[in-house]
Description:
By secondary structure, the chain is of the alpha+beta class.
Amino acid sequence: MTEPSDAAARRAVKPVVCYPNETLPAPDLELYAQARKGAVKLGEVLVPPRDAACFRVKAGQFFRISSVEGPQVGDLNLWNAEDLSERFYSGKSRALHGTHLTVGERMWSSFPYLRPMATIVKDTLDWYGIDAYGGSVHDVIGTRCDPYTGNLLSGTQYHHCCHSNLTRALADEMGLSLHEAEAHVHDVLNVFMCTGFTRDTGQYFMKASPVRPGDHLEFFAEIDLLGALSACPGGDCSTEHSSDTARCHPLLVEMFEPEPGALNGWASPPVNGYDRSHGRG
Length: 281
Ligand SMILES: [Zn+2]
């Protein structure tokens, strides 16, 4: 490999942030916190290990994902409850907020909607930060574990990857066939998962999640949502996924509704304002 004579100078160029996010509409976290104080629990869903379950929350309600029994990673999908074509856009959320999400950051929806679907309002793992390996929690850099990649790499037929778990849960919830439901499953927010990229080879890595029972990640629903959460077959994702080897635990999803009037001044965000003419007409 021959390097150009000015290779060092080219590498030394300072990076610029692709999407400075100071102009992003900021969530009113104070208002959300006030509303959460008087909120009452509406219900809960226990997601079994190596399986997934759906839940619904209305705009203005909260949902909390908690670790129970033992360290466990969850793969989260979100859709507009009235229109499955509007779904969580992991890549754009990453571009706007960074590789891992925490309090005040949003799960943004796909084009042409591109609006906040949910805002993170509480994260008991926010103390973790970025560790010495470059790892952090709640990533939007992974995809979701799936049987196709397992088949590609190892020739396996494993049926309890998050992709399949989410597919079955959505099919049952919506009365769709598995193939119809599968097309709506998308890249996830990896709740509680500890991940990063190796510095030497740039490869996606995972390590044992720092989550412990009682830890939780809580969201404010900005629009009416259908959610699906898979308790990953990787368990705490310390060694492997896409098999029945890892020790797995359930995950708890709880929904909360604020008192009437608690969100005065707040409105569910409209869809994106781009006119969609794409330079024609
Ligand atoms: Zn998984």
